[in-house]
UniProtKB/TrEMBL annotation:
Top-level lineage group: Bacteria
InterPro entries linked to this entry: KR_dom, NAD(P)-bd_dom_sf, Sc_DH/Rdtase_CS, SDR_fam
Protein's recorded name: SDR family oxidoreductase
Xref: CDD domains: SDR_c1 (cd05355)
UniProt entry keywords in alphabetical sequence: Oxidoreductase
PROSITE patterns registered for this protein in UniProt: ADH_SHORT (PS00061)
Signal peptide region: none
């Protein structure tokens, strides 16, 4: 069923406003969802930009693949890309079909093409084939957003099972190598690769040793790959979110007792909403950032970064 925005007071990302007040500080319950989490079950609900992201033609005619585009930051990026004029393919886990359908609906209502590509990025074969499937569905590819990620908090290193360690590294960093390898034959000069890293790359929580170390690797990979692909006219950059309210957090990403204070310790005093990340990805994907390569754009509510 198509939803309709009936809130006439609503602003968009281009409205002059106080960033402290743009969204309320949230205090989520300690309730847990099963991994990988569901956008539709997220309490409180998060803003993916359906009614708050206004496009201005910055990605007209572009073709993007966004991993983990069913929910959270990836969904907000997929929606913003469509609003900016791009066709968008998203990958997600088969269990996330319902969330993916909702993103498909929003992209399609925007008048752009959406392609749904379910599968597991810890599977090397899926990584190799999903890019070709995106290219067939969209008729090409010029933006790759490596955004899917796994985050499971544990009290001690002894609780990190080998299965968790390996699947976190597979999903967060090994998949990036594989997806980039599979994409290069399709990407022409002007194309952009954007990797999602994290403030955890520089400020690792003691409960996220496996996750945080993949994020440091992603930052490093981004800076190396950017140099390698620059002569081909392909720009590689990263976005490093701070605490953003997405299904990742209440599905094992945080210790439950941390959830009621989620995001409150950053200088802005509140967690970020997924759609607040989207302009960073749009900027890095758009030709206007032609001289920006190997950069990590921090979108974190003001936490200092190196
Ligand atoms: P999210 O749960 O909405 O999105 C993560 C997505 O990753 C899932 O929807 C799922 O489709 C995908 N994924 C996970 N494991 C996968 C697998 N094995 N195969 C295929 N897909 C898989 O959460 P999010 O917070 O929007 O996460 C997006 C990215 O942002 C992640 O890389 C995460 O590390 C990063 N990040 C999030 C925060 C935050 O506070 N939410 C902060 C910093 C970085
Ligand atoms: Mg999801």
């Amino acid at each position: 069923m198509a939803s309709q925005d009936t809130d006439t007071t609503r602003t968009d990302q281009l409205t002059f406003q106080d960033p402290v007040e743009r969204y309320p500080s949230i205090s989520p319950p300690e309730d847990q969802q099963p991994e990988p989490g569901s956008q539709q079950d997220l309490t409180p609900a998060a803003d993916l930009g359906e009614f708050s992201y206004r496009g201005t033609g910055r990605l007209t005619g572009r073709k993007a693949l966004v991993t983990g585009g069913d929910s959270g930051i990836g969904a907000a990026v997929a929606i913003a890309f469509a609003r900016e004029g791009a066709d968008v393919a998203i990958t997600y886990l088969p269990a996330e079909e319902e969330d993916a359908r909702e993103v498909e609906r929003i992209i399609t209502e925007t008048g752009r093409k959406a392609a749904l590509l379910p599968g597991d990025l810890t599977d090397a074969e899926f990584c190799a084939e999903v890019v070709d499937r995106a290219v067939s569905a969209l008729g090409g590819l010029d933006i790759l957003v490596n955004n899917a990620g796994k985050q499971i908090a544990t009290e001690s290193i002894e609780e990190i099972t080998d299965e968790q360690l390996e699947s976190t590294y597979q999903a967060n960093i090994l998949a990036m190598f594989r997806l980039v390898k599979a994409s290069l034959k399709h990407l022409q000069p002007g194309s952009a690769i954007i990797n999602t890293t994290s403030v955890q790359a520089y400020q690792p929580s003691p409960t996220l040793l496996d996750y945080a170390s993949t994020k440091a690797a992603i930052n490093n990979f981004t800076k190396g790959l950017a140099q390698q692909l620059a002569p081909q006219g392909i720009r590689v950059n990263a976005v490093a979110p701070g605490p953003i309210w997405t299904p990742l957090q209440p599905s094992g990403g945080q210790m439950p007792e941390q959830l009621p204070e989620f995001g409150q310790s950053v200088p802005l005093g509140r967690a970020g909403q997924p759609t607040e990340l989207a302009p960073a990805y749009v900027f890095l994907a758009s030709p206007e950032s032609s001289y920006v390569l190997g950069e990590t754009l921090n979108v974190n509510g003001g936490s200092p970064t190196p």
